[in-house]
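Section 4.2 – Deliverable D4.2 (structural model, holo form)

The reporting period included a commitment to supply a predicted holo structure for the target in complex with 6-O-phosphono-beta-D-fructofuranose. Inputs used:
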Amino acid sequence: MNLTSHPTWAALRQLAQAAAPTTLREQFAADAGRFDRFSVRHDGLLLDYSKQRVTTEIMAGLHALWAAADVPTQIERMRAGDTINQTEGRAVLHIALRHAGFDPIKVGGVDVMPDVRGVLEKMQWFCDEIHQQRWRGATGEPIRRIVNIGIGGSDLGPKMAAQALAAHQVPGLRVLFVSNLDGAHLATTLAECNPAETLFVIASKTFTTQETMQNAASARAWLVAALGEAAVARHFVAVSTNLDAVAKFGIDPANAFEFWDWVGGRFSLWSAIGLPLALAIGFDNFKRFLAGGRAMDAHFFKAPVEQNLPATLALLELWNADFLGAETRALLPYSQSLELLPRYLQQLEMESNGKRVGRDGLAVTCATAPVVWGEAGTNGQHAFYQLIHQGGRLIPCEFIGVIEPDFTLPGHHEKLLAHCFAQSEALMRGKTLAEAQAETTAELAPYKVFPGNQPSTTLLLPHLDPYTLGQLIALYEHKVFTLGALWNLNSFDQWGVEYGKQLASRLLPIIEGKSATTGLDSSTAGLIAACRKE
Ligand code: F6P
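Output (structure tokens):
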């Protein structure tokens, strides 16, 4: 249904206007219970959204939108294996990948769980083989480097998670990631590797993605040049839904880890796409990661909307985007280990909900996914925070803090937390002209005024470990699902990335000089002419 024509939508518009003159600073001054009212705790996580521009009435209206969109029924359709990705004719069941126990989860009447368990067992076996140094390279050397070759969902998840869990890294093994078609990525990575001790994981859902196939072919050539053709079997494994293409590439199907078309690329970290993560942190830790995701699933499915963490994040995003007009959201993890989270969430959120046509094929009549961007704190403070504080734009911020550090160096962590909380306080409070005048000269005071009233949320994790990372990623997955349900979008297709790929295939022979630039616009033709060697 189109929520914008629901009476609650109009009521929320009025509430937005009525609430606008009262600043966050005034709201905190008037209400000592604001934090208690607008924060949720669950399973060690604390979500403080008291610095968002909401009131009790606004939250009630947003909860009414959740009911109006009948999100619980949409959740049930996902869980039942319905074809909710209707433009690709697929079910959406990444939740099955972290499901435990023997209850069936069915797609087209068939229980997918035996296959899920089978691949997990194979991953566990393989991790043990590598870690116990039973699986060795062709010359008998143990494997000390894993190079994952993939892109998008076949890269961002395991890369982000392996860095996030660096404190849990299995000793003696380095896991590297190559994604970019630019040969510089593979070349500089291979420069750190010795062929005899390197294993390549070729990760591609389709096994047709040009970037991955080119990098895989170049990696294969590098290995064969050093160790010969027969070495490929000990140095290449694949992760894919397309086992025929894996075999055609020359990787033994026995060295392939399967997943299925009901796993979307950007939701695939829990599948065999997580193999490099499992190799990096060990399979027991990978199981803890799955358990964290599973715990968040149970919370999302059962908790009332008022206490529901993914629903709360989704409704606040909708509020900021559709009622306050925010076009972006800054994601600011105060954790170096979570440095790659903004990039990971860019794909998860923007590839899922960066759409303007609804499930009914009609243009949606409200704003959808904002631009997600960000950087680890405190680094971002010395780059773009100036604009957030004084640039005059509405930029909702999402801070993520971790109570216990994952690397304990005396003197660091308390300062890090102080900066994290100080930023959200400064964004909320701002500084008036009178306050600026009290601390500086009349001449400088105008430059030191901060408008404040910049909304933010702070999510606190007790610590960063495999379980909490699983909770965190599943939290954002369900937030994305909820927003898709509210905006009436299919969050699981990605037609928007196809067109550029088609045009690139058309331009390649022209750049190679095999065909003429005839028919191209003058800009594209001019750029190609500048690159052609003849
Ligand atoms: O960016 C488009 C996309 O299809 C993503 O959804 C996917 O994660 C990525 O390409 C990689 O695709 P594959 O895993 O099939 O190589």
